[in-house]
């Protein structure tokens, strides 16, 4: 009898305790996700983080400058545009100390990231630039160590523009590395818009490879960029077929069995530390199909798109941790045609990706055969090492 | 085969004789024809033959500065690689030798640099920003490497990976004294390793290139013996590879395990023998009909006839059968592999070549074994000496597969069986196994046991980035 009560008491205490722990844990989890600012997430611990209030004031509007860059030049990628914006920020602001410079950069980077609905590609650029500055301050040439800060600043600025120039040379190199992948009479399947893929296919066509391209269109249909891309392919007399997503497996089965095996070549907005890629919505699904029918999936991507962030999965919480909020599920009881305006948009100051055309997705690394970067062909495993090389 | 055969058909021993007597050109031609006629085959033998020929090349090259050595070695190497596209080991060895030359050359450069550090740095000492920008723009002009410019650039390049210090992120300070460090021109990711060099020491080194080669004659004569020493180390490494690999056996094979293996591989044999010295386990050995079953039988019964292997390399001859080490061995036909796989705890295989992404070329039938192992969730372990690690990417997997004597599949006297067969009888010697099917690789490199995901790192460490394309 006695024994029995003791036991029941203990189990009760145990239950209580475990319940409380779960509660505490979940609270911590939620507060983590909701309280964190998207921009501060991807900042690595090694970068010295000055407090924002010490940042010098400037009337340079980085967001407007960035948006102008993106709209003016269709070939520029978000990370490079971000770096260019930061460079002109430095150029237009009179600065006198190093810590001032770093504070300015840090506040404006977070301002820029906060202004974007999909800050992941930009964060690659801003992080890279800040890291670059810190390291070049730390290891500046001996002549500049003792000299005036203006000389140093001038030096940094001139090299920053060179950095942008260098980054733009990545694409032709990717095209060169990708050439052996494209065999005569083979079929290349692509999805989404990528400048790297465009450069790559153009280069292959110019080197007299004959190949076919299957363009998988998203459910939202042909966008302007994609139709321009296809027109460019047609100008190079590359036979191109556009299919919808649901036709993919049937299209793969319709390819001639004697032809060289088909392959996916796609681009990516960013590459995360475990080798997973950020792409347009729908790529994960296509990658699963590709894996299941053993079609290799190659990702053409410039290595400045590598982001130092390790996702733990590929769901909405992982994207939220990266600063992207989007809501695919819109439950409703109305007719499907009525198209209810999502209320979430108002709740979060328009920071939610609403249209499917701009939604993104994480495609996990085990579905990727290889990354074609300007540094050569690498497996998704090699991404983390490249990042370590860059940051430490 | 009769023991008199070796003297009649040319092979490894005749190559060794030719190498020591004939001129370099004729021994190159001889080895090329041997490779083409498959009179030297197998990764190990090809690797040793290539190393010997390159050793001879280095010995015979006149005026052996690094440029000339690299040029000669890659000339000879190219011929060999073209002669044996089915043997990646040849290319691997050529790359290794080129890497040795580059390493030694770099060491010398460091030596000269520290010696003359006083004078030419004055240029960087004044260090106007204009000079820096000039250097940078020069670096920029190199950034899309044509194959020619990389070669010259590479000469001055300190190895990107072998440096003890990791290349820091720094950018612009091109003329830092003691710049033997690989300074990346902008960002290490932006600058490909091959284009890394030219910006590095353009002020100091380029202006000084004319002088050191003339003045430092002591250093010139130093290069060749060092390189020769390095190449001889490769030969030692090849010969000791099986032993070094087997050192990992005790960690991998546990008591009472059932190991499945396939075909006749001396490396695997050694690996199992080493484990057998301490452990009791069972080996299930599939025979690999029709190309290797006789060798497998010989290996298992211990009647391995050394005379049959016309040119027994050192270490090959004294292998004893597993049964003599107290291991129970079950030999099965290839058709039973799937059936016995459910009892296996591990699969140990040899490879013909291992590619950088973790795919491998192995004796035909290996793919079936690996697929069966995957089906039954049995871990697969592949033993791969470093000379089999190839930096190539399998763009065209079917080109790596070689076809052998179809008569082994269907003897010639049974030709009437062929009547119904449309395309004839094929006998592939190798299988291409795509990446992701092997759990562990055991190499004779320092991290002896590597997972498939980390393999690229081990392969990359073997070679210099400049030599990936020969």
CATH architecture designation of the largest domain in chain B: 3-Layer(aba) Sandwich
Count of separate structural domains of chain A: 2
What percent of the residues of chain A sit in helical stretches (DSSP H or I)? 40-55%
CATH topology of the largest domain in chain B: Rossmann fold
SSE run of chain B: HHHHHHHHHHHHHHEHEHEHEEEHEEEEEH
Pfam families (chain A): IF-2B
Keywords (chain A): Cytoplasm, Initiation factor, Protein biosynthesis
Main location (chain A): cytoplasm
GO cellular component, one term (chain A): cytosol
Q: Could you walk me through the main structural features you see in this protein, from its secondary elements to its overall organization?
A:
The complex is a heterodimer of chains A (392) and B (470). With 392 residues, chain A is of the alpha/beta class. Chain A folds into 2 domains: 41-168, Four Helix Bundle (Hemerythrin (Met), subunit A); 171-391, Rossmann fold, CATH 3.40.50. Chain A has 16 helices and 12 strands. In chain A, the strands form 3 sheets. A 7-stranded mixed sheet of chain A has the order 3-2-1-4-7-11-12, sandwiched between helices. A 3-stranded antiparallel sheet of chain A has the order 5-6-10. Chain A has a two-stranded parallel ribbon with strand order 8-9. In chain A, helix 3 (62-72) packs across helix 4 (78-92). The longest helix of chain A is centred in the N-terminal third of the chain and has 34 residues, at 2-35. The model of chain A is unreliable at 19-53 and 340-348 (pLDDT under 50). With 470 residues, chain B is α/β, with parallel strands linked by helices. Chain B folds into 3 domains: 5-113 and 216-239, translation initiation factor eif-2b, domain 1 (Four Helix Bundle (Hemerythrin (Met), subunit A), Up-down Bundle); 116-215, no CATH class; 247-467, Rossmann fold (3-Layer(aba) Sandwich), CATH 3.40.50. Helices cover 45% and strands 9% of the residues of chain B. Chain B has 19 helices and 11 strands. Chain B has helices spanning 5-8, 12-21, 24-36, 43-60, 66-83, 88-115, 122-126, 129-141, 147-156, 197-200, 202-208, 210-215, 217-246, 249-252, 266-276, 293-301, 337-341, 366-375, 455-462, and strands spanning 258-262, 282-286, 328-332, 346-350, 353-355, 360-363, 380-383, 389-390, 430-433, 440-442, 449-451. Chain B has a 7-stranded mixed sheet. In chain B, a hairpin with a 6-residue loop joins strand 10 and strand 11. The longest helix of chain B has 30 residues, at 217-246. Chain B is globular and about 65 Å long. Chain B starts with a helix and ends in an 8-residue tail after the last helix. The interface between A and B is large, with 48 and 42 residues.
């Amino acid at each position: 009898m006695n024994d029995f009560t003791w036991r029941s008491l203990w189990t009760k205490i145990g239950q209580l305790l475990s319940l409380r722990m779960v509660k505490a844990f979940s609270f911590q989890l939620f507060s983590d996700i909701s309280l964190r600012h998207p921009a501060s997430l991807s900042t690595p611990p090694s970068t010295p983080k000055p407090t924002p209030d010490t940042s010098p004031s400037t009337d340079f509007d980085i967001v407007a400058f960035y948006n102008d860059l993106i709209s003016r030049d269709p070939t520029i990628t978000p990370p490079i545009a971000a770096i260019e914006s930061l460079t002109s920020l430095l150029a237009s602001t009179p600065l006198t100390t190093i810590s001032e410079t770093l504070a300015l950069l840090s506040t404006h980077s977070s301002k820029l990231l906060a202004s974007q609905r999909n800050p992941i590609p930009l964060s690659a650029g801003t992080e890279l630039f800040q890291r670059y500055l810190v390291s070049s301050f730390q290891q500046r040439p001996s002549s500049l160590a003792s000299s005036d800060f203006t000389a140093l600043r001038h030096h940094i600025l001139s090299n920053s523009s060179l950095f942008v120039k260098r980054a733009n040379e990545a694409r032709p190199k990717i095209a060169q590395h990708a050439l052996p992948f494209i065999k005569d009479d083979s079929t290349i399947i692509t999805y989404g818009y990528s400048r790297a893929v465009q450069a790559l296919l153009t280069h292959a066509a110019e080197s007299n490879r004959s190949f076919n391209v299957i363009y998988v269109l998203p459910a939202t249909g042909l966008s302007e960029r994609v139709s321009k891309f296809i027109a460019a392919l047609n100008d190079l007399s590359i036979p191109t077929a556009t299919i919808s997503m649901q036709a993919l497996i049937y299209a793969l089965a319709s390819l001639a069995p004697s032809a060289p095996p088909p392959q996916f070549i796609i681009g990516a907005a960013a590459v995360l530390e475990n080798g997973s890629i950020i792409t347009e919505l729908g790529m994960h699904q296509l990658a699963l199909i590709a894996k299941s029918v053993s079609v290799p999936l190659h990702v053409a991507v410039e290595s400045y798109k590598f982001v130092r962030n390790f996702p733990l999965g590929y769901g909405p919480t992982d994207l939220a941790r990266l600063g992207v909020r989007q809501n695919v599920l819109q439950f409703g009881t109305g007719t499907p045609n009525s198209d209810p305006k999502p209320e979430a948009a108002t709740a979060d100051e328009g920071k939610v990706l609403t249209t499917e055309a701009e939604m993104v997705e994480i495609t996990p690394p085990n579905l990727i055969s290889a990354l074609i970067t300007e540094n050569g062909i690498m497996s998704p495993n090699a991404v983390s090492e490249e990042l370590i090389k860059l940051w430490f | 085969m009769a023991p008199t055969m070796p003297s009649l058909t040319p092979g490894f021993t005749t190559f060794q004789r030719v190498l020591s007597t004939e001129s370099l050109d004729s021994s190159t031609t001889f080895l090329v024809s041997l490779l083409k006629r498959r009179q030297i085959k197998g990764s190990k033998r090809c690797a040793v033959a290539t190393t010997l020929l390159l050793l001879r090349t280095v010995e015979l090259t006149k005026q052996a500065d690094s440029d000339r050595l690299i040029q000669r070695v890659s000339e000879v190497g190219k011929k060999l690689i073209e002669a044996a596209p089915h043997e990646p080991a040849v290319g691997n060895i050529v790359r290794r030798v080129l890497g040795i030359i580059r390493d030694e050359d770099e060491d010398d450069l460091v030596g000269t640099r520290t010696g003359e550090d006083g004078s030419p740095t004055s240029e960087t000492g004044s260090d106007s920003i204009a000079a820096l920008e000039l250097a940078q723009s020069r670096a920029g002009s190199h950034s899309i490497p044509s194959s020619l410019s990389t070669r010259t650039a590479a000469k001055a390049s300190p190895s990107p990976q072998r440096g003890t210090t990791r290349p820091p992120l720094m950018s612009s300070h091109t003329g830092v004294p003691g710049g033997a460090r690989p300074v990346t021109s902008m960002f290490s990711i932006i600058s490909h390793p091959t284009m890394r060099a030219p910006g590095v020491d353009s002020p100091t080194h380029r202006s000084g290139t004319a002088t050191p080669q003339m003045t430092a004659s002591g250093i010139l004569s130093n290069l060749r013996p060092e390189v020769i020493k390095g190449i001889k180390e490769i030969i030692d490494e090849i010969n000791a590879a099986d032993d070094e690999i087997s050192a990992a056996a005790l960690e991998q094979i546990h008591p009472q395990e059932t190991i499945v293996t396939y075909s006749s591989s001396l490396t695997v044999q050694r690996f199992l023998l080493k484990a057998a010295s301490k452990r009791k386990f069972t080996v299930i050995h599939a025979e690999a009909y029709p190309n290797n079953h006789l060798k497998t039988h010989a290996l298992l019964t211990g009647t391995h006839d050394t005379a049959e292997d016309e040119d027994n390399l050192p270490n090959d001859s004294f292998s004893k059968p597993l049964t003599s080490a107290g291991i129970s061995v079950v030999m099965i036909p290839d058709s039973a592999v799937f059936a016995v796989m459910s009892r296996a705890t591990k699969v140990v295989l040899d490879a013909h070549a291992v590619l950088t992404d973790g795919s491998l070329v192995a004796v035909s039938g290996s793919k079936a074994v690996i697929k069966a192992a995957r089906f039954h969730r049995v871990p697969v372990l592949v033993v791969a000496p470093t000379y089999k690690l190839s930096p190539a990417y399998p763009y065209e997997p079917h080109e790596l597969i070689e076809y052998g004597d179809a008569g082994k599949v269907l003897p010639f006297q049974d030709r009437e069986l062929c009547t119904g067969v449309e395309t004839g009888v094929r006998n592939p010697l190798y299988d291409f196994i795509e990446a992701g099917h092997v759990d562990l690789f055991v190499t004779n490199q320092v991290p002896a046991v590597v997972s498939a995901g980390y393999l690229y790192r081990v392969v990359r460490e073997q070679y210099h980035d400049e030599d990936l394309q020969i």
